Amino acid sequence: MKDIVELQSDLKKAEMRILELETNSTNNPLFLNMFNSSPVSFGLSNKAGTIINLNTTFVKTFGYDIKDIPTVSDWWPLAYPDVLYREWVVNIWEQHLAESQQTNTDFEPIEVNIKCKDGTKRVVLISAAPLKGSYTEVFLVIFYDITEIKKAKNKIGDLSDSLANMTASIEHQNTKLLIEKEKAEASSERLKLAMLGANDGLWDWDLAGDKIYFSPRWKSMLGFAEDEIKDHYDTWKGLVHPDDVDRAIAQIQDFMDKKVERYEAEFRMRHKDGQYINILSRAFAVESEEGKITRLVGTHIDITERKKAEEQLNYQSSHDSLTGLVNRREFERRTEQLLSASKKKNQLHALCYMDLDQFKIVNDTCGHAAGDEMLRQISALLKEAVRDNDTLARLGGDEFGVLMEHCSPDNAYRVTRAIQAAIQEYQFVWENRSFRVGVSIGLVQITDKTNNLTELLKVADVACYMAKDKGRNRIHVHSDEDSELAKRQGEMHWVTRIQHALDEDRFCLYAQMIEPLEKSSGKHFEILVRMIDEHGDIIPPGAFLPSAERYNLMRELDKWVISNTLRSLKAHPEFLNRIDFISINLSGQSITDERFLEFVLKEIRSLKNSASKICFEITETAAISNLLLAGKFISELRKFGCRFALDDFGSGLSSFGYLKNLAVDYLKIDGAFVKDIVCDPIDRAMVKSINEIGQVMGMETIAEFVESEEIKTMLKEIGVNYAQGFAIHKPQPFIELLSEESDTKDSNSSKVQPHTK
């Protein structure tokens, strides 16, 4: 090991050489000779991050040559493989460099641990100085190896002073002493986190000395001046929300007991104004040589706005945007919970299913704006009629549901009668025209004998149908005697029509373009399905798909769509070659059926090398409900190159965590968030957040319901990749699209044909 005299001698030599280096070109032979013969490791880089040269001492010390690290970006991950440590080094390096340039002062040396090419680690003090003269864009980076010096702790102060003097010589500026050893060891961890986030509140807990430090930013985040609250553990404990404090303490204790590898906790803290803000707390531990934790150093981040956005997102995913009532998905979730509880505790509950009578007249006469306003007003009436603990939901269109917990048959009937009376007394006025509507209600009791959610909703739907069938504007209470009539009048209404349409091949394919918002020559489309009725009229999917889903006909319908789509594509290879991808929707029933997967694999194999043109869309709710099976389905088809999109993303959102387990290529942002982004800042923030998360996870995003150029422009600004909606392209028969594409190709071909007689 070199002694301090030898090191000081090396430093003096380095200083003399550096003074000469500053006045010579980096390509001058004299410069290179002095550069390479220096006992100190040097590197030359420019502002663009290109490493120009490395001296012989650098290569010998660290093992890397210019071929290993042609740029600074190549150097960082090799020298600092740990991600968090690398982030700290990069941040503090860039800060020191910026401060040095802006203030025209010395570059303060940084102590770092560098991983050498052979896997060993060296402790190094690094500094930098611009080379003066004609090459002001070139930086000389100094790496002083203090590995051996660190082992001799009593000599570290002399070495730090020497390095500070050397740095001062390079910069020709005022000499700055390095932070003395004791202060550096006491606050180095604190400075690391401070560099990582200047806006974060810093805390440093010295467990051995039972002292705690709160930075000024930590206090101002809570509305306090620096001298208004004390740096004490009891201060923190007293500000944490009473409902969160025990959990927060337990999480810290688990980290100190090494029961968990990392500390990251969320809790609420009281602001000076009395309100509570949401805090994300993170920390790392400093251990003694014996492995005992002696200090915790961490940050507080104010995540209140993020929490509000999450709450808004959760609210929107569980509530109807028009009426503010619970939506169908949330209603079914709560009903399912109640079913489980009733089986265990033998409790009585009730459910009523309501369908407004004559609502279509308002829509057809006055338009959808009037219909929407009427639904909002009726929702307000229904809120007044139900009990406080009842769940009132809009299930879709003009259909509503009420879930009545702990409700006897008599009480359930009284609530239902109150609903009926409120609507009967209601009069809707629009542009000097008045309307009255009625309501047909199906009432069902929930007991421990109720089988499942599907059966319960089916019975409620049938009871409502029977109320309509008996003359409308009445209540039908379900009884066991209804089952035969229900089968005849309710279930088979659409089941029979869908089955006949499948048997008679009375479905047709439509297609809608998906437009890239970035520069792209590829074409993209989504396949849609329509039913053709007995008279040849087109029936939109909203009329028959809900029944197909409820009565388990979606697998057969999905098979029809896949077979006919692929058959058309194989018959038009020129179209298939020109498109980038074409999307086909799949139901939750299909992706959980092993036999359906076998069918799809067989169909996909027939496309041979064009399978990558097929993108399957599955809904977010179907994927979450069947995560394992959905994952298997996706995995098997991705082997053939098929792509996947997660449809209606955001509509059933509870957490982004499951996305990590789904290998999808595209996120289709739910149109409920997209359609109002121009005028609604919350919707705009939701779209922006979903897009950013998708991009970070390597997925491209597709926005649905793009119905104006303003929406399209805003989506471009946000960075969404694709847009789909009426402003882009209205759905058209797929056969027409194939014909148009074929005509376009023939037209283009004729333009380049030579003229012949």
Automatic annotation (TrEMBL):
Domain EAL as annotated: residue spans: 491-745
GO MF term set: catalytic activity
Domain PAS residue range list: 187-259
Limits of the PAC domain: 108-158, 263-315
Gene3D superfamilies per record: 3.30.70.270, EAL domain, PAS domain
InterPro entries tied to this protein: Biofilm_reg_signaling, EAL_dom, EAL_sf, GGDEF_dom, Nucleotide_cyclase, PAC, PAS, PAS-assoc_C
Pfam families for the chain: EAL, GGDEF, PAS_3, PAS_9
Protein name stated in the entry: PAS sensor diguanylate cyclase/phosphodiesterase
The species this protein was found in: Glaciecola nitratireducens (strain JCM 12485 / KCTC 12276 / FR1064)
Taxonomic classification: Bacteria, Pseudomonadati, Pseudomonadota, Gammaproteobacteria, Alteromonadales
